[in-house]
Structures are given as structure tokens and as C-alpha cells.
Design a protein that fits this description.
CATH topology of the largest domain: endopeptidase fold (from Nostoc punctiforme)
Oligomer: single chain
Strand content: 15-25%
Helix content: 10-25%
Largest sheet: 6 strands, antiparallel
Strand order of the largest sheet: 4-9-5-6-7-8
CATH class of the largest domain: Alpha Beta
């Protein structure tokens, strides 16, 4: 049997020892009063009160427009279409780059493909191919997540509701929300 003695160690040593002792980790996740902690072979250590440590996600810095958010994905909606809209919204402010498919820069169809890919749906790469896939939807029957095509299929945006689309317009610009009637809409597709 080991002799038991009572000592006070600095918090730094308690952190190391705490992970070795069963149950010691609880002292670092819930607020507690200072209490003795018996450690077999070492003795009893006074564990000072430790403030609650916030959940890991609460320590992450907020995402800013146009920055990658690969570590903390945006919240997801219940359908793939709603999730695609949420992912597209998370890229507002990202720069337009011709031929880019993310995660930091996009062209118009690259943004659509990336947003749907994050939502678990595979769609074609170019706006012309995207315009021929999926199911045709009338412009008067749009739902959030529908792709809206402009300029004879040369440009595409994702409908977000309330008459708006998110799109990546052109070189020198960035991903943004625009009223659907600001451009000549031709067709729409649902995936």
C-alpha cells in the first residue's frame, strides 16, 4: 500500500497529472470548488477551482466574407437545396476567378457546383451543362436552391428566395446577392 500525503501542486502539473488519473478531467469541464484529488502512488493533490471551459466551437474566430471555412462548416438546412443555399451564402465576398471552383475563389458555375457538392449533390461543372441537367422549373415557380440561368446560359446563380440569387458575377467582382430581375433570366433548373 502506498503512503498517502497531502500536497498542493501548481495548476500546470495538475493538468498533466489530471489526464493520467481517472475522473480528473471532469475538473476541467465543469465548475467546481477546490477539492482534494487522490492519485494512486502520488497522494492527495488539492485541485483549485477551475472555471468552465467553453466548447471547442465557441473558441473559433468568426468567419469573414470570402475566407475559407473548411474547419467550421456553415449550418445546414434540412434539404440538399437549402444546404446548397447556405453554403453559397457562406461564400459571399469571395473573389471571382474564371474557372475557379473554390473553396476560396469561384466563377459562376464553379460556385454552384461547389455549393451543391458541399450539400452532397453532384452537378455538372459549366453553366451550359448545368442548364441541361436537373429538372426544368418555370421562373414563376422558383424555390430556394433552384439554379437560375442568365444571358442564354452563359451565367448562373442560385435562387435564395424573395426574388434574389447568389452568384459570382465577373472578373474584379465577388460572390454576392443580387435581385433576379437585375439580369435577363432565361431558364431555371432544380436538382
Amino acid at each position: 500500500m502506498f503512503a498517502t500525503h497531502h500536497t498542493t501542486l501548481p495548476v500546470r502539473k495538475i493538468l498533466v497529472t489530471g489526464f493520467l488519473a481517472a475522473g480528473a478531467c471532469t475538473a476541467f469541464t465543469t465548475p467546481a470548488q477546490a477539492a482534494p484529488l487522490p492519485l494512486p502512488g502520488i497522494g492527495i493533490i488539492d485541485v483549485p477551482a477551475v472555471p468552465t471551459i467553453p466548447p471547442l466551437g465557441a473558441l473559433a474566430p468568426p468567419a469573414t466574407a470570402g475566407t475559407p471555412d473548411t474547419l467550421i462548416p456553415p449550418p445546414a438546412g434540412p434539404t440538399p437545396e437549402q444546404r446548397a443555399v447556405t453554403y453559397a451564402e457562406s461564400k459571399i465576398g469571395a473573389p471571382y476567378v474564371w474557372g475557379a471552383t473554390g473553396p476560396d475563389t469561384f466563377d459562376c458555375s464553379g460556385l454552384m457546383q461547389w455549393a451543391y457538392q458541399q450539400a452532397g449533390v453532384s452537378i455538372p461543372r459549366t453553366s451550359q451543362a448545368q442548364e441541361t441537367a436537373g429538372t426544368s422549373v418555370g421562373l414563376n415557380a422558383l424555390q430556394p436552391g433552384d439554379l437560375v440561368f442568365f444571358y442564354n446560359g452563359e451565367h448562373v446563380g442560385i435562387y435564395t428566395g424573395n426574388g434574389n440569387v447568389i452568384h459570382s458575377p465577373e472578373p474584379g467582382d465577388h460572390v454576392k446577392t443580387t435581385p433576379i430581375n437585375a439580369m435577363p433570366a432565361d431558364t431555371a433548373r432544380r436538382y
